[in-house]
Amino acid sequence: MAEGWQIARLWGIPLRIQPSWLVILLLSTMAFERSYRPVGSGGDLMIWGLALLTALLLFVSVLLHELGHSLVALSQGVKVRSITLFLLGGVASVDRECATPMGAALVAAAGPAVSLALACLFWALRAPAGQLAPGLGEMVLQLGWLNLTLALFNLLPGLPLDGGLLLKALVWQISGSQRRGIQVANGCGRFLSLMALGLGTWMLLKGNGGSGLWLLVLGWFGLGAASRQAQLLRLQTVLKEGRVADASRRRFRVVEASGSLRQLSQQRLQGGEPEVADPAVASTAVPAAAEIPGLPPWILVCDRGRWQGVIDDGPLQALPVQRWDGERIGDHAQPLGTLPSIPEQAPLWQAVLRLDDPEVSRLLVLSPAGLPTGTLERPDLAEVVLSRLGVRLPPPLLAWARRHNAYPKGLALAQVARSMLSSGEVQVTEAPTT
Predict the structure, then answer these.
(1) How far apart are alpha carbons 343 and 363 in whole angstroms?
(2) pTM for the predicted model, two decimal places
(3) Domain that holds residue 101
(4) Are residues 114 and 51 in the same domain?
(5) Peptide bond into 432 cis (omega under 30)
(6) Which of 214, 322, 352, 367 is the most exposed place for a label (fewest CB within 10 A)?
C-alpha cells in the first residue's frame, strides 16, 4: 500500500492519507446528504454542512480506532511506523508483531473497544444534541450506529480484520505456533471474502447496486490481503529453510602476503587478479569480468596457501608512494576476524538480521572449518529469496538494488526476520553471536 501524504503526527506516529480517502469522503458526504434531506434539517447549505461534518467525524472515529491499536502496540514495545487513512478505512503499520499471543490479542481488541466506546458516547449525546438542533441529534445517532457497525464488522473472524487477529492470537496461544494461527485466520478471511464476493454479485443482479458493489470491493480487498498473508508464510519458510551457502557469491580477491604495496596499488587500478602461490587459493578468486556493480570486492591475504587476513587501501593512503615497493602486503594485513562473518550453513534469517546492522554492508561466508568460501550482500540474498518465491522483478529494480547494496524496494526482509525471532518462530539460541 502506498504511504500517502503525511498531514500530522500523533504521539510521534505519522498520520497519512491516501488520495482514495478523498474519494470515499466525497461519496460518504453525498450519502449522508441524501439521508438528512427527508428529515428537513434546514436549507441545502445546512444539510450539506451536516453531511460533511458526519463524514469527517466518521473518519475521526476510524482514526481513533487505529490509534487505539497503535497506543496498545506501543505499550507492548512495538514501534508503529504510521497510520494511513484510505478508501476502505484506516490501517496502522507496525515494525513487527507482538512477541506473545496475549500482547497480539490486546492490540487487536483495542480498536473495536474504542469503536464500542465511541458508539456509547454518541448515543449518550443524542438527547443534548437533539435539543440544540434536530439535525445534530440525527447526526450523533448515526455516528453511534456507524461506530457499532465498525466494531462488529472488524470482529469478524478472518484476516486482515481485528477478529482475524484475535483468532490468530487464540490459535497461537493454544498451539504454540504463530504460523498456525496465521494459517487458520487467513483461511477464515479467504472464506469470508469469497462470501462477500458471492453476496455482492447476487445483490447486483437483484438491483441493489450500491451495497452489492461495496461488498465486491470488500471481497476483492480481503482476497488480496489473504494472498499477501500466504506470501508472507512462504517468505518465512524460505528464510527459515534456506541456507547462506545458497545465496553467497565470491566477491573477494586474493593476494600473496609476500607481494608489495605497489602490486596492491596496481591491482586496485587495473581491477585484475594477481598471481598467488597456491592454485587452490587462486581458484577462489573472482575475475574482474565477473564482478557486478556495487561495493568494491574485499582483498584477502594468503601466505603460501594459508589465509592470513584482509587488507584495504589504508596502507596506500598512509604511506608515501616511494615506500610502496619495499613494504610487504602481509605486514599491513588485518585479521580475518575483523570482517563481519557468518557460517555457510546458517539459515537465511540470521543473515538478514546480521545485514540489518547499518554498519555491516557485506558478510564473509565461512566453511565449517572457518575458512572463507564467499561473501553475502543484501542483493544476493534478495535474489535467492525472490527466486524461491517464484517472483521475477524487472531488471532496473535489481540493478538499483545492486548499485545501492540494498534490498529491492518493498522487500522488508528485516521486518519479517525480526517478527519471526520475536514470536518464537525461530529460536533465539540460533541467532548469530559474531
Answers:
(1) 10
(2) 0.73
(3) 5-155
(4) yes
(5) no
(6) 322
